[in-house]
Design brief:
By secondary structure, the protein is α/β, with parallel strands linked by helices. Helices cover about 45% and strands about 15% of the residues. The strands form three sheets. Strands 3-6-7-8-9-10-11-12 form an eight-stranded parallel barrel, surrounded by five helices. A two-stranded antiparallel sheet has the order 1-2.
């Protein structure tokens, strides 16, 4: 396979169009499986993937990536990206403390691409500026410990434009997929960042997997009719790569088959690659997708933990599945996702106290408490609980 690359306008470096997102690495017994992770990273690197993205707040991810890169000797073959959790920085010393911990986890002496994580409002940037982050970044870049600095974003277009112009960034990272090209920074933000000469890293190209695993049957049928040999994931990546502005598209691969499929798609990635008929198919798919899904939750878990124990992403997964894949499939997903804890309390929508703690943390700006009311109404009718208890005994 021949990997395609796009240039980083700031450095001239060539970055693989397919990047490896390390948020959802394979797990076993509740921990990241290092052997499986090593196999996946090796497969990707050997095929030419040279951009790997992790974060301080991804449980176990930095340690796993660092361990694999150290024991395989592959660190210098890739660009390594991780992120500063600015919300945890309350005093100037916190920048250095967290970064030092990240270097130790990653077993490296430098980070190639360092992001301010979820810098989604101007106020967040102003707060860390007041703590002295500009001087700290300058020191880290001067020492070579940080090669390029950027930010990831989950806010509104207006705020994106403000943050984009607030500093001399080296790159940025935005959510972008075919289900809604005008959501968050969207196509307008993408083009503005590109016009400023910044490489743009794309996250959530498959909407947290929703454009694959829970794609409405009608939408998938349209894709298969147009290209029987293309996976649903390939449609999602190809739509992004069809545009000249994105530099790297991240994929949260956690299985060999996913890596193989993504690599095959990346081999043909080029601006303008979609035919008019394929673009028409995607427009029809987009319409079917919007008809079926009610809540634009990506399952990122930024809203968690809920102080009252609600599994918010699990509730929305069941709710959306009930529309896209049928009510019984929705019930199954919902009741499997909202298990009973040791105290006998279920983590379902009925446990919501409408406190609003989740809503202020949601990158998708979902009115979570209100949506959970709708979830409860649809998936917790009086007869559902005893029926699902009976079903669970036979599962």
């Amino acid at each position: 396979m021949t990997m395609q690359y796009r240039s980083d306008p700031r450095s001239g470096n060539e970055l693989s169009v397919l990047g490896f997102g390390c948020m959802r690495l394979p797990r076993s017994a509740g921990r990241i499986d290092l052997d499986k992770t090593e196999a996946l990273l090796r497969q990707a690197i050997e095929a030419g993937v040279n951009y790997f993205d992790t974060a301080y707040v991804y449980p176990g991810s930095e340690e796993a990536v660092g361990t694999v890169l150290a024991r395989t000797g592959l660190r210098d073959k890739i660009n390594l990206a991780t992120k500063l959790p600015h919300q945890r920085c309350q005093k100037p010393e916190d920048f250095e403390r967290i970064f030092t911990e990240e270097l130790a986890r990653l077993q490296t002496d430098h980070v190639d691409f360092y992001l301010i994580h979820n810098l989604s409002t101007p106020a967040r940037w102003e707060r860390v500026v007041a703590l002295g982050i500009k001087d700290w970044i300058a020191q880290k870049k001067a020492s070579g410990q940080i090669r390029r600095v950027g930010f990831s974003f989950h806010g509104t277009l207006g705020d994106f434009e403000t943050v984009l112009d607030a500093y001399d960034w080296d790159f940025c990272q935005i959510q972008y997929n075919y289900s809604d090209e005008n959501y968050q920074a969207g196509v307008t933000g993408l083009r503005k960042a590109h016009a400023k000469g910044l490489p743009v890293i794309i996250m959530e190209p498959l909407l947290g997997g929703k454009l694959v695993t829970n794609l409405p049957e009608k939408a998938r049928a349209l894709q298969v009719a147009a290209h029987p040999d293309w996976s649903a994931a390939r449609w999602g990546f190809t739509w992004v790569w069809n545009q000249p502005e994105p530099t790297v598209v991240l994929s949260g691969m956690n299985a060999t088959e996913q890596v193989t499929d993504n690599l095959a798609a990346a081999e043909e990635a080029a601006p303008g690659m979609l035919k008019e008929s394929e673009e028409q198919t995607l427009e029809a798919v987009r319409a079917a997708f919007r008809e079926a899904y009610k809540v634009p939750c990506t399952g990122c878990n930024y809203c968690m933990p809920c102080p009252h124990g609600v599994n918010i992403p699990g509730c929305f997964a069941g709710y959306n599945a009930s529309y896209a894949n049928g009510l019984m499939e929705g019930f199954k997903t919902y009741y499997m996702s909202t298990s009973v804890d040791d105290a006998g309390k279920r983590s379902s929508a009925s446990a919501c106290e409408q406190c609003g703690a989740c809503e202020v943390k949601c990158p998708q700006h979902i009115a979570i408490p209100e949506e959970l009311k709708r979830v409860r109404k649809r998936l917790e009718p009086f007869w559902a609980s005893p029926v699902m208890k009976l079903v669970s005994k036979f599962m």
